[in-house]
Inverse folding.
């Protein structure tokens, strides 16, 4: 599972999406999330899914890399699906399948479970495309540029962007460090794959302790390096590469605006997610 972490990992390629301005891609992802939450039925989710597949194809990113990002929250998806299945309240006795005390399973609960799971699935895949097609430095530059108006209220925009840049840069580094520590502990006879949950948690202690020590040591080295280079914050700093909007960014935002419009139209035309019951039952 450690090897499947795609957050903060950049996939180099030459594509339409890679060449977009990072600010446009951030706004693009925010609008995509809005489109996912605006979808009130399965037809809207189907439109968002087809749009996501088209973006992945346009970005020339392996679809398997995007799918592996879902493994990070697979437990959360399953847990939320179970909660929605057993604890979703329905007042329609006609569509009730099974009931025991306060636990009730109905067709509405099943449909709501599937709908929520698909929504979480699409959200994670959409954000992973942003991480796979944007370098961490460019991503933080885009965030800093978008948050520039907050400087009027003396909000530390540059410092926030610097923290995010360091965090994104250290995620792959700490992932590789974790893999090396696990391999070293396995060579010494450690077992991470057998036993119950408590036993596996205890087995991770020899991994977490050296990982924390290594993280603090890297942070200390980074602080010393920044002081040696006379880093003094945002005052007087300039950009080597300036962000510029191009026709790609405008075209991408227009297409996404069309997606949001289409989702709203599908909501009006097909109704809510539970209307599908009337089609099959």
């Amino acid at each position: 599972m450690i090897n499947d972490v795609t957050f903060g990992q950049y996939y180099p390629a030459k594509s339409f999406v890679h060449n977009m301005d990072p600010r446009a891609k951030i706004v693009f992802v925010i609008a995509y999330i809005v489109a996912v939450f605006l979808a009130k039925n399965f037809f809207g989710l189907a439109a968002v899914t087809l749009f996501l597949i088209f973006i992945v194809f346009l970005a020339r990113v392996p679809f398997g890399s995007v799918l592996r990002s879902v493994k990070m929250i697979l437990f959360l998806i399953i847990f939320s699906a179970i909660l929605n299945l057993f604890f979703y309240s329905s007042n329609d006795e006609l569509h009730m399948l099974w009931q025991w005390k306060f636990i009730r399973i109905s067709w509405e609960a099943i449909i709501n479970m599937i709908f929520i799971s698909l929504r979480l699935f699409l959200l994670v895949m959409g954000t992973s495309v942003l991480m796979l097609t944007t370098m961490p430095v460019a991503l933080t530059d885009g965030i800093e540029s978008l948050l520039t108006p907050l400087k009027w209220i003396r909000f530390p925009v540059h410092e926030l962007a610097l923290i995010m840049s360091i965090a994104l840069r250290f995620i792959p580094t700490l992932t590789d460090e974790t893999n090396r520590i696990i391999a070293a502990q396995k060579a010494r006879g450690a077992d991470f794959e057998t036993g119950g949950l408590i036993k596996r948690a205890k087995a991770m202690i020899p991994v977490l302790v050296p990982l924390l020590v290594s993280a603090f040591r890297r942070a200390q080295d980074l602080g010393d390096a920044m002081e040696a280079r006379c880093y003094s914050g945002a005052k007087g700093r300039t950009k080597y590469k300036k962000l510029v909007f191009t026709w790609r960014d405008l075209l991408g935002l227009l297409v996404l605006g069309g997606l949001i419009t289409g989702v709203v139209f599908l909501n009006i035309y097909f109704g809510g997610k539970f209307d599908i019951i009337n089609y099959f039952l």
Summary: The two ends are 40 Å apart (CA to CA). The chain is about 65% helix and 5% strand.
